[in-house]
Amino acid sequence: MGSSKLISNREMFQMVLLLQQGGLFWLLPYLLIGTNGTIGLISILPGVAVGLLIILVCAFWGKRCREQSFPQSLTAMLGRPFGTVTGMCFMLLYLVFAVICLSSFVEVLSTQLFSTTPRLAILVPVFLLAGWLAWNGLEDIARLLILCIVLAVCLFLLALAGSIGNFAPENMLPLQINDVDQLRQSALHSIFFYSSLLVLFMVYPARNQTRHAGRQLAGAMVLSTAVFLLWVGLALGVFGQFSTGSLIWLPLELARMIRIGSFLERTEALFTAMWMPIVLVNSGLLLWSVTESAHQLLHKQKSRWLHWGIVLLAAGLCVVMRNLLQLFYVEQVLSVVTLGLVPVLLAVVLLGTVVYSRKKEGQAS
User: What whole-number distance in Å separates Cα of residue 7 and Cα of residue 206?
Assistant: First the structure.
């Protein structure tokens, strides 16, 4: 499963633009707003800072080690034992992000739309679709990006048209911090969700262009954050600070404000169906990163057994989280782990890249 040159810088820009629209879009608004209301949005800033740091380190590494895939370059930079362990840490993080992304969407479907359907009957087809997309590879994922962007724009315009008449700027006031501890927790959540950008290390070597894309990727992340803040700001203006802070699935509540004549009353179902390709593309990319990492770390050719074994493992982890409370608990624990692990991994990659590039320069001279 080599890293052949499959995608353009433009497609990578689109990938970053949509990467966080899976788990981030469904869970993070509730985690940020809480009892602090509008001012709670400032806790997204640590996550943005971590996201920018990931992009900078990725671009720095890609400029100097682009001829190799990420797992291969870790072994070359750090040696086989340490490089393999570091690669496994990245792989486990990709697996965690994929599980949280898919689990949150399964929870939406099972609690909001199909409450009488067994959870397993929802979980299995969702994971099969995401696993199938990951098996087809990065090129097929990239082909779906433009469709996902069109869907995302249409959904935002529908939500805006359905709720703009109820929007009142005064609902976003006053701006005051009611719970400092929750603000710290919200910052941890934002760091966790933005850390999903670590997947760029797997995607960067697959570009078919030599021009580096660091600024484009940073711009895509900032644009994605601005769109996210527009969604949350719209909800705050419509529902008010207290109500917004108590809405777990905020996008669905905005979807319920949409009216499409008298023939379609459950617009949240249409909204969720239209958003499903975006979630599947996000989760497919994350699962592809897990399986691609595993194949390269184990030095194996493309194996159905290994690929679907990893998908089965991810589905099993999702089964363990039987309800929303368990999902929140697991996410909270993982956010603490991510805070300590991600800076260490980025420092290791940065230091290894510097040493490796100097060694190459010495050999060339």
Answer: 6
What is the b/e burial string over 240-279, where b = at least 16 CB atoms within 10 angstroms of the residue's CB?
bbeebbebbbbbbbbbbbbeeeeeeeebbbebbebbbbbb
pLDDT in tens, 212-230: 788 899 999 999 899 889 8
At residue 364 the predicted structure's pLDDT band, cuts being 50, 70 and 90, is low
Q: Please answer whether residues 338 and 23 qualify as being in contact, where contact means their C-beta atoms are separated by less than 8 angstroms.
A: no
d(CA 194, CA 215): 17
The tokens describing 170, both together, are 């005064």
Could you tell me the pTM of the whole model? 0.91
Name the residue among 38, 138, 109 with its Cα closest to residue 272: 109
Q: How far apart are CA 189 and CA 20, in angstroms?
A: 13
CA angle 106, 309, 97 (to 5 degrees): 45
Determine contact, residues 284/188, Cβ cutoff 8 Å. no
- Which tens digits make up the pLDDT trace of 259-292? 655 555 566 777 777 788 888 899 999 999 999 9
H helical segments located in the chain: 9-19, 23-33, 45-65, 70-78, 80-108, 119-136, 138-143, 145-163, 180-194, 200-203, 214-239, 241-245, 250-255, 267-297, 304-320, 324-364
Angstrom distance (rounded) from CA 248 to CA 15: 26
What are the beta bridge partners of residue 264? 260
Do residues 275 and 151 touch, judged by C-beta distance below 8 A?
A: yes
